[in-house]
Amino acid sequence: MPSFSDNSDAPGAASGMLGGAQFALGAAAAPLPAALGSTPAQSTAVVVLGFVLFSAVALITLARPWQGHGEPAGQP
After folding, report:
1. What pLDDT, on the 0 to 100 scale, is given for residue 60?
2. DSSP letter string, 14-62
3. What are the two backbone dihedrals, phi and then psi, of residue 26, each rounded to the nearest 5 degrees?
4. Of the candidates 3, 34, 37, 72, which lies 20 to 30 Å from 28 by C-alpha distance?
């Protein structure tokens, strides 16, 4: 996953990839509530819950927050 804090030669490309991924996931999620068929509120809630779980799994597997790769605690 691209990071903006890296000393990358192409930060605009990383931004474009992240924006494109958001656009693609949003386009894929739009027809899902209609495909589930039950009430609109219930099917939308199921899709949102599914993407929340997908995001949590992605965070745990890709970012590994327990390894402390974020900014140091003493830095603002």
Report:
1. 87
2. HHHHHHHHHHHHHHHHTTHHHHH-S-HHHHHHHHHHHHHHHHHHHIIII
3. -65, -40
4. 3
What are the two backbone dihedrals, phi and then psi, of residue 52, each rounded to the nearest 5 degrees? -65, -45
Distance between CA atoms of residues 14 and 29, nearest Å: 23
**Distance from chain centroid for Cα 37:** 25
Give the gyration radius of the chain's Cα atoms: 17
Global pTM? 0.60
Q: What is the pLDDT of residues 18-52, one digit of tens each?
A: 899 999 988 988 888 888 877 888 888 998 999 99
CB 43 within 8 A of CB 37: yes
